[in-house]
Design brief:
Layout lengths: L3 H4 L1 H16 L9 H23 L3 H27 L5 H24 L2
Helix pairs in contact: 2-3, 2-5, 3-4, 4-5
């Protein structure tokens, strides 16, 4: 059995993003940056969770509210990713891959928000 949110491309992208961020920030070499790593992970989980929760809401206003929160969390994750790159927590190749995924997710989440009527 699948729920509606599992069919949403933006939820699938947010799932990929969350997994990728967790994988790329597992190294114990970066304990000094624990708070930043924890925050980018929380931002990714927020995107993922708010898309799912919003899809279950019955009112248009509620659906839009949760998708808006997911969008804002994606912007937050991008900002944190930039800091992770500045502090060399992740390599340039991972930075580019994750950034591209976040940017794609931001665009698609915005389009999805606009389509909710």
């Amino acid at each position: 059995m699948y729920f509606n949110f599992e069919r949403l491309e933006i939820w699938q992208l947010s799932r990929q993003l969350t997994i990728l961020v967790f994988e790329r920030t597992q190294s114990t070499d970066f304990l000094i940056y624990q708070d930043l790593i924890r925050q980018i992970r929380k931002s990714c989980i927020s995107i993922f969770s708010n898309i799912a929760e919003g899809s279950a809401r019955t009112s248009i206003a509620d659906r839009r509210k949760f998708i808006s929160i997911a969008y804002s969390s994606a912007i937050e994750a991008l900002s944190q990713l930039i800091l992770c790159n500045d502090f060399q927590i992740i390599c340039d190749e991972d930075y580019e891959k994750i950034r591209q995924l976040i940017e794609n997710l931001i665009l698609k989440t915005n389009a999805f928000y606009k389509s909710i009527r």
